[in-house]
Amino acid sequence: MTEDDDIPLEAGARPVLRLKPKAGRRFFAGAPWVYQDELVLDRRTRKIPAGAVAELQDAERKPLGLVAVNLESGISGRLLDRDPGAEIDGAWLRTRIARALALRERLFDTPFYRLIHAETDGLPGVIVDRFGDACVMQPNAAWADQRAEEIAQALREVTGVSTVMLNAGSRARGLEGLTGETRLISGALEGPVEVPMNGAVYLADLLGGQKTGLYFDQRPNHAFVARLCRGARVLDVFSHVGGFALAALAGGADSALAIDGSEPALALASEGARRSGFEGRFSVRRADAFDALTELGEAGERFDVVICDPPAFAPSKSALQNGLRAYARVARLAARVTGPGGYLTLCSCSHAADPSAFRAACVRGIEQAGRQAQLLRAGEAGPDHPEHPGLAETSYLKALTYRLDG
Ligand code: SAH
Q1: Domain range for residue 137?
Q2: Does the global pTM surpass 0.85?
Q3: How many helices (H) and strands (E) does the chain have?
Q4: Which member of 61, 70, 361, 392 lies 3.0 to 4.6 Å from 324 by CB, making a disulfide possible if both were Cys?
Q5: In this structure, are 229 and 359 located in the same domain?
Q6: Could you confirm whether 229 is annotated as catalytic?
């Protein structure tokens, strides 16, 4: 008997993934993942198709639960259920979704939020943002991509929404070897959706927009910054559809200028400002953020409140050093255009840049601008983006608000 034959192909009707002896350190510490190099990769295991549900066993064949398999990905097993006898069917999906929904309904008065935050809500790789009667789903793992219709059906049943979009635009899909296009699974969508948030109306383009259309994760940070904005002249850099700027205007800012490289995002920001009744106080500039900040600084422009919320400059560990340099550069340029006694908020959505490394980069940049700062608040993603205690990756957003010297 070879070692290959020794491993049962199936436990009941299921394939088996087995950990090597002493492997699974993160899994046993609470992470819902097993990595490729932790697994016994015999001939049978290699044949398990991506997206299949397998029983995970330890090296002594003790069942540990059910995992979704993808041997094309470094994360080769994602924990679905600690009960090896569970059925991953419509009822199982509905239970997970209902549990996620109960939290959001407790948190929010209106149905606009991140409904499913992947592993943390027990649906590995699945992101769902809810916009009233529409859900935008990113099935960023093979098991979920294959079951997209079934998940959409469960979403409709549990939440009552009619429209479900599949968004195939995330970077994570590439790492999982997933292809396919963004498409409407059910219902209809006509134009951008109005999202009431932070006292303003935002416009989210669920069809062609970035991410799923809106950055719900920044909601509490928008709200905090808005409290600093009464009577202020505000600069929102990397604004997207005006997340910080519109909240600032709702909070009583005199004026807000939004800068972004994306024309469609700025058009939505302007329309959001119009529908919020902020016309005349809001303006946009399409530009590269670094160029625009440099020009504003050289022109002697100063703002009372400045926010910089760039895309992930350090999307992976290998990009970390360059990413931190870019964050420091943003901090330096932004500190220059922040007036005496003004408030500066610097954000990062890179998990690889951990909070202390990001803080150090921000302080370096502020000092290079010749400024002193007090840190007022270190914000994170809102509670509709809960963290998984065993998965540091689920804590990614940092929003530091400083008051600069007078
Ligand atoms: N602050 C927003 C989210 C910002 S997302 C909110 O709270 O809702 C990051 C934004 O940066 C995107 O809209 C993207 O178009 C923009 N962006 C990326 N690189 C840029 C660059 N070099 N110059 C200007 N904008 C850029």
Answers
A1: 90-186
A2: yes
A3: 13, 20
A4: 361
A5: yes
A6: no
Distance CA 77, CA 43 (A): 17
**How many whole angstroms from 241 Cα to the centroid of ligand 1?**
9
352 vs 26, 73, 74, 308, 355, CA distance in Å?
A: 17, 19, 17, 18, 9
Q: 41 and 123: one domain?
A: no
What's the pLDDT tens digit per position in 212-241?
Answer: 789 999 999 999 999 999 999 999 999 999
Amino acid 94: pLDDT? 98
Q: Report how far ligand 1's centroid is from the alpha carbon of 239 (Å).
A: 5
Confidence band, pLDDT 50/70/90 cuts, at residue 2? very low
> Catalytic pick from 135, 347, 349, 362?
349
Among 81, 101, 120, the domain-final residue is 81
Regarding whether 214 and 174 lie in a shared domain, the answer is no
- Report which ligand 1 atom has the smallest distance to the Cα of 214: 8
Q: How far is the CA of 399 from the centre of ligand 1 (A)?
A: 15
22 plus 112 within the same structural domain: no
Residues 342 and 241 reside in one and the same domain: yes
- State the Cα–Cα distance between residues 366 and 354, nearest whole angstrom: 18
Q: Are residues 147 and 205 in the same domain?
A: no
For residue 378, what is the domain's CATH number? 3.40.50.150
**How many domains does the structure of the chain reveal?**
3
Domain end point (choices 81, 116, 137): 81
Q: Is 244 within 8 Å of 224 (Cβ atoms)? A: no
Digit-coded pLDDT (tens) for 20-79: 999 999 999 999 999 999 999 999 999 999 999 999 999 999 999 999 999 999 999 999
Radius of gyration of the chain (CA): 23
